[in-house]
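Build the 3D complex.
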Amino acid sequence: MEKSTSISTLTSDQITRDLLPQKFGKRGMIWTGILIVVSLFGLFAYARQLRYGLIVTHMRDYVSWGIYISNFVFFVAISLVGSLITAIFRLTNVKWRTPITRIAEIIAVSNIVFAALIIVVDMGRPERFMNLVLHGRIQSPILWDVIVISTYFFISILLLYFPLLPDLKILLKFKKQTGKRLNKLYRFQGSFWKGTKEQMHISDRSISILCIVIIPVAFMIHTVTSWLFATTYRPGWDSTNFGAYFISGAFLAGAGAVAVAMYVFRKAYKLEKYITDMHFERMGRIVVMLALVYLYFNVNEFLTPAFKMKESERSLILQLFVGSYAPMFWFAILVGMIIPIIILVFKKGRRPLPMFIVGIMVVVGAWFKRYIIVTPTLLHPFLPMQNVPENFKYYFPSWEEWAIAGGSLAGALLVITFFARIYPIIPIQETIDEQNELNEKNEKDESK
Amino acid sequence: MKKMNQNKFILLFLFISFNLFNNTLTAQNDSVKPENVVRLHYFNINGKMQYLVLESLLKNGRVFTPHSKMTYEIYLDSAAQKNLVSSVTTDEEGKGKAFIPPALKSIWDASSQHTFIVKQGDEEVLSDYTITKAKITIDTSTVDGVKNITATVMDLKNSEWVPISDVEMRVGIKRLVGIVSAGDEPTYTTDSTGSVTVELKKDSMPGDQKGNLVLAVKIQDNDEIGNLLMEKTVPWGKVTEHNTTFFEQRTLWSTRFKTPYWLLFTVYSIAIGIWGTLIYLVFRIIKIGKLGKQFAMINGSDEPDDI
Amino acid sequence: MNDNTNKSRREFLLTGLLASAAVAGCSDKNNPFSTEDQVALTGQKVKLLSVDGEVIEIDKAFLKPVPDTPQLSNSEERRGIPGKKFVMVIDLSRCKNLRRCQSACNHMHQVHPGQNWIKVLGMEDADHTAPYWQPTTCMHCDEPPCVKVCPVDATFKRQDGIVLIDSDRCIGCRFCMAACPYSTRVFNWEEPILTEEVADQPYSCETSMPQKRGTVGKCDFCPDMSRKGELPHCVSACPNGVFMFGDMNEDSVTNGAESFRFSDLIKDKAGYRLMEDLGTKPSVYYLPPVNRNFPYESGLENEYKPDHLYEDAKLSIKKN
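Done.
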């Protein structure tokens, strides 16, 4: 068991008071306001896209997938962390996970929602979305993705909901602090939770089942997402390594996002007693391990084709390594993997602030990495790019694409922000239970 | 939907055309007025059906473009009202078709040679298209396993069929569009007896389900006799069955009604397994709800002490 | 560059149709692809004079230069023409980059300015190999990677070998575009520019018209023309006879002026298909650019800048 020092002196009341959802402060208001403005701007850009068609983007016949798809892959990647922190850590009995499970789970839910939304944005005919159900063709990896993503969304919601039940019961007691409306919401969601032994037993078992189920599904969402690329013949995508490559990258990106969120919540809600330096230290070790794994898969992904230099791959590899995409390519490798590894191998690098910076580096690197995976490949078709207007031969997103992509990122953050406003971002009951366990243990030790 | 009216579209099309030819041409076009060219083609199909196709083109330098929505009158032998064959309006491709009506039977029968006259309004735009009645006969023979096709062309001169020599024609097997030559030459020319004998060299060509092939002899745009086509069905082909097994198979590219079984099995078993579990868990939530209500019934609305 | 031959070639096709119609009427069903079934018979008979001066009756539908084909149901269009297996042969030794195929195709399908269903690519396989012009259509693969990935059966393979798109079904995910190794598919990024006549037509997969915004388009092998007994537009537009179209089951292809036995042609000229190693099994065969009719350089003058076309079309849209 981990010896956590700062919590040991806390009483249940204090924990409850510390962890109750708080109203937005001035900073919170500004933050939320900015996110809403960015999201609305994204919506405005999408309205333009609906009106004029995908012509408002700079995607054309060769680069037929742009930042919408790279953003989609990014969202799916980030959402994978829910399964890592909640499920894998639970099954492997990692005790220090308690304060970050809900953070990870809401990141997973909000990101998977926006992954689905950004796919709808990318569709030329979003109003025909139901065709996927009415005329769905199981042979298509897109349908696998639809099935798997909706499944993962549902599991993530359940995994968010079950542990929330005891907390809802606590929240119901604080009607004055939370306000009438929220109280109604809590009552609707959890008034039936009485905390009886039977209920607890069912809940515990259900969470265990979910934690087992979510792991294969999580692997599936990202493997299937990688197959959207790997099932084509395109150089740079035609790779058997792609599933593992995507999953390792996803865990890294998600872990980075959690590190950032940990730091932000800790600062914003003054949770230093709950999200401690120890948590950053542990999380740092996880991130460095994931970054090393991802780096390994990157070497694996690029070394073999670069060694052979097959004609179809040659121009793509050269463009990535030394050509026009080289700055972005090496940025993603350096900032997304190598520099984080260098920082995190030092103990000082795993303190909260460096961890926060590393987290941002990892997430930003991950976003550009997805861009690098999607776009350059499409600029290297098998037959030469001829008989097309000049602007078909390169790609840089239009302002509408940036606005929509930015809006979706802001939207995902907004979901997380509002969630933290409504529900305790750190599980109250679980923290209290852990505290009690610890106190009992301390008493036993003393009596000995 | 954005619609462009016809004129603008034609302009766009012309623009494309001009891009395709060199610039000197477009320079010429500024000075030369487009010229209206009318052509007539007579068709005789299997010695029975006959018709005329009128073709109206705009000649612009070396470029011909179809002249649509133009109306012309076609007359037989003389431009009198009683000799009117038909009034035709050209379609998008600049073409119009005319059949000879029964009313002109006496004029048609009167001579073995006829002239067609085309008028646009009062202006005579074509007056020298003359056709002689002609026919093709096809004879087939098999000698020592060699299959021969003999085609004979004759025209009507003073109510007698006279063989014509030096007529170029295709002799072959009728296909989807076009005729695959029976021998090695693409076309054959009739000798002094008006006939041509061609050995069928393309062995075991696929025929229909009974192994029938349609032989065809075709004369195209002959100055004297126009366009003639004669066909004959012979059992010289290879029997072909319509094989739909390729299309019926269950593959990754088949429709959703023909998904491979292994894929269906895999996807359904995973989906049912996982969603079965999830539905079970939803029922567990309902169970928790019921337990909560039971607890409230027994203990009033009081809540249990924290455990 | 002779338009006369080009025009009369069309006539030739027309003749074929009527011939079969007449034959089907008087002899047994000897033609598996009887065009009689394909023509929308009106039931109204018209009396005409035959060659012998007899009075015969034919259906009014034949009065038109090209008889109307009936509106087919979507399921018929998806099934395709039974007993056919369409195939195309492109003779690279005859191509001089004239692009008549391209402009005819663009015109007939009202393809968006700047985009093309047929591309004529200037190819040079390696530094010291000879360049050549390669017209590229949809390959109508027998193992079509685009169809494999379509999530909604919007693109499909028919029994006659043609791969078509149903723009009423397409959701615009563009997975097929990523999957196609021949980069043959185009997307209607904006509202297509259509003539009023076409815009008012009901949609048909076989004509691919009227095209719809937010859906994918590509070369369709013109099955509507095949049903009429005519050749695809690119085939009949090419004055050099580069394209040959036909039916594998009949073992023959034609460019209108010349017809060949397909198997002989492929054998004699060493026909091949593109990217055989991918296993897509295309229906389009190429004849290598040997003994060329034109030097490669003669095609250079025909290179045009789609950019200008594109900008010009944009201007005309704005004016509207």
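The longest strand of chain C covers residues 86-91.
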